[in-house]
Hints:
alpha/beta, single chain, 7 helices
Amino acid sequence: MCKIAIVTQSYKNDFNECKLLCESIxxxxxxxxxxxxxxxxxxQLFGCMNYKRHKVFKKSxxxxxxxxxxxxxxxxxxxxxxxxTIPVRxxxxxxxxxxGVFEVIGNEYDAVFNIDSETVLMRPLDKAKxxxxxKFIMFRTLNVxxxxxxxxxxxxxxxxxxxxxxxxxxxxxxxxTPVCFVRENTANLLxxxxxxxxxxxxxxxxxxxxxxxxxxxxxxxxx
Length: 223
């Protein structure tokens, strides 16, 4: 039987929303482990969410040690800086934490479902709707004017050195919540990025990519 977990990226401004999410998981999905990743400076605030199946982690447990978060916004964004990367937007940091989650929670989980902290469960979670014949459900629709979609596809093509034109894999949009990351697929994706990167490090490769989305290449609706 497949073992899954829920993963949430949050921060201090979403504290109350994240707390409500935890309460809804307690009520409607109490058998599922829930991992919350927050900025290091917010860890104490979120400490009250370390209970039952909820576990709070600092983002630094995933990130390279040499990345330093700038404490103030620049051009409307928070950035992380280091001598090995361009300034890294916090949104990129969130995606790296999602992709690197199995480094922290281990390999006992077959997949994780990423759920935003603004989400709340309204009824019992039926895992049978997420998992079918050992495969995990994935939202997919034809791309219709999704902002920056072409930029995401160009980044994926470069990171993975894909030999096919963007038109062959960029016609679909997978953006939704929850988003499922299967452990084996994620490991293969990150290894492919690592091998193609100049420094042989997938985190550095992503940190030095200004805009990307975790693209599941050629995935069917269920995987």
